[in-house]
Amino acid sequence: MSAQQYDEQYAADRAAIEDLMARYLFALDYNDLDSFIAMFTDDAEFEFARGRVAGKDNILAAVQGFKKRIGEHYKDEDGNPAVLRHMLAHTAIRVEGDRAWTRAQWFEMANNGPGKSLKMGTFGIYEDKLEKVGGRWLFSERRIMNEFLPGRESGPGNPIRSLDEAAG
Amino acid sequence: MSYASDRAEIADLIARYLFAMDYHDADAYAECFTEDGVLDYAMGTLEGREAIRAEARVFKGKIAEVFKDWQGNPAKLRHLVQHKAIRIDGDRAWNTGLWWEMTNGGPEGSVATPSFGTYEDELARVDGRWLFRRRKIYNEFLDGRHSGPGNPVPAMEAA
Lengths: 168, 159
Hints:
The structure holds two protein chains of two kinds.
Chain A (H helix, E strand, L loop, with lengths): L7 H22 L3 H5 L2 E9 L2 E4 L1 H18 L10 E13 L2 E12 L8 E15 L2 E11 L12 H9 L1
Parallel strand pairs in A: 1-6
Antiparallel strand pairs in A: 1-2, 3-4, 4-5, 5-6
Chain B lengths: L2 H20 L3 H5 L2 E9 L2 E4 L1 H18 L10 E13 L2 E12 L12 E11 L2 E9 L14 H7 L1
Parallel strand pairs in B: 1-6
Antiparallel strand pairs in B: 1-2, 3-4, 4-5, 5-6
């Protein structure tokens, strides 16, 4: 298994991928599904709490359903849809040419605590594949693992092992 | 190598370190340190990669004693890193990073956020790879392990 070459190209690709991951979260949390879906390749696969779907149209439909369910599940004290934010912490990124892989720690918080206070939601990791298409990094596969959903937990092995194996 | 590429590699190292720790991969954890690397943390100071590897093998059991879920099982513990100030000077580098941790140890399986602190690191480039030479872990919730009171960044700049 080869190790990552941490060169200038890696730095540039990593910066672009970190930016994509930030834009993804803003798009998701602010219900901007046009921006959201533009971050995937045409044949991308998306795996999350409700299953696995392939292709942009199916991903979009799945996320619309997911957003609706979140609106029903996360409510503030007055019964309004909660303000929910997904956050990203440390991110391991492998880049090989026009392909990349990530393992990234996420968590979520909302205003659904007592008196509309901040309440922590759940946490898990992203396991992504990306492709550079026309000079732009896009998700070709995003798996969202959640440590609070039975059957969706990450691990038990170190996710970095599978990251490095995927990159060859 | 530019600052940007060194910083990118160190950011990746810091992420790999955290995954190794939280998923109990003692070998991957130890490989984040130089051969003479030092880990100075709440449970003691370890000198050398092999001492760190041996300790990492028993982290899981030690953590299971401290962090439990509401039913008494070992909790899932995750360490997170937020902002990082990184100084590079040739083949040496320094990092001051803010960490916090969360578990599933809250009431009825909800999230708990036990503590936060800083990483104050010295790194060395060995055979072209950045590794931790010394990692000191401060915790604002443990007596004797508090960071500060002064800003840790000027100390890093003066090192």
